[in-house]
Amino acid sequence: MAETRSFVFPTKKRSLTDDMDGDRHVASKKSTARYVDPEAALATSRHEFGEHGGVNMSIEASATFTVMEPETMRRMFAGELGPDRDFFIYSRHFNPTVLNLSRQMAALEGTEAAYCTASGMSAISSVLFQLCSGGGHVVASRTLYGGTHALLTHFLPRTCNITTTFVDIDNLAMVRDAIVQGKTTVLYFESVSNPTLAVANTPELCRVAHEKGVTVVVDNTFAPMVVSPARLGADVVVHSISKFISGGADIIAGAICGPSSLVNSMMNVHQGALMLLGPTMNAKVAFELSERIPHLGLRIKEHSRRALAFATRLKKMGLKVIYPGLEDHPHHALLKSIGNKEYGYGGLLCVDMETEEKANRFMNYLQNYAQFGFMAVSLGYYETLMSCSGSSTSSEMNAEEKELAGISPGLVRMSVGYIGTLEQKWSQMEKALNKMQDHGLLFNKT
């Protein structure tokens, strides 16, 4: 059989007279170096209408697709016909509804293409499987989401002999020295780190990696719209859509945004990680998410506004607060310079209570005494979600790894919600803090 190609993202625009409008599946044009507002990019992306003229697209819930002529199926499997001309084989390969969401994600991140997956971890693992071969090498930030850290530390070495060197990405010399010429294929980091909220100097890290011929993969889950890594030089951007982009804490999903050549290779029927591993997004999930992306910008702005307000007030009270929007944050100026204007500094803040016991007491009072938020992992929900990272989302890391990553035992990560009024929620926060003070647990409070 001839090598199968995927035609989701054609290399040249088809004319209006071409059959079946082959340009309709293009995710977005490759961005230029000039600033592009993510909301503007979304607004100019193609709008998919319903089958009968509805303002919302129809859901293509079929697992498999029919053809009119037997010869057509052979040509599809041979790579001669594809989704760019409305020829679909099977929804694990391509699905029209999932493709629409993928186009939105590409517009959001300013990449040529994107494809959406069943979870954030499936997006991350599929990209790494596609870019790395057995015996390969990755250089990664030492501060990562615990699941990603476990994938790189334990799973990939055991199953594929793919090893990782973890580095302080603030130290460009360390990053450069860790790259092994001819062996390292990926530099991996988070735009804003989980949970320490360190901001990566994406332009400089990309420069170092590209000088060595290394592909840069950035997890932008913590900062959609706040930062656009691809516009800063990153090759691939991955997301857990389950978080801010979904906003409802009711969907598990992921996305891979990058060059059309990468996305097409990942859907190849012979060697594509997405095609062969099968982390397929359900079309009904894709439809729901595509209806939420248009108001993502409004939500991000309010998450950021409230997070800055709470961080500023908590700091004035003498608590140890970590938030990139505070001027004393070591990366405040960096994020201000590389971030997208109008979207603030993100919706997450951390309060370091020093010990796990005090962190747990604080969260208990916030949830069960003051009704400020919920003790739960994840982020981007309209209610505030809080967790003690060291014993939850970073529990896969050992004590030494947590120390190197800057994760204190008492670090409380808060995803600040926007329900209720700001002053209403602040009064609930104060109620919990006063309870802590009454029990002598806020030694630094003035």
TrEMBL record:
SUPFAM superfamilies, A to Z: PLP-dependent transferases
Molecular function, one GO term: carbon-sulfur lyase activity
GO cellular component: cytoplasm
Modified residues (N6-(pyridoxal phosphate)lysine): 243
Source superkingdom: Eukaryota
Ligase is among the record's keywords: no
Family, as annotated: Belongs to the trans-sulfuration enzymes family.
Name this protein carries in UniProt: Methionine gamma-lyase
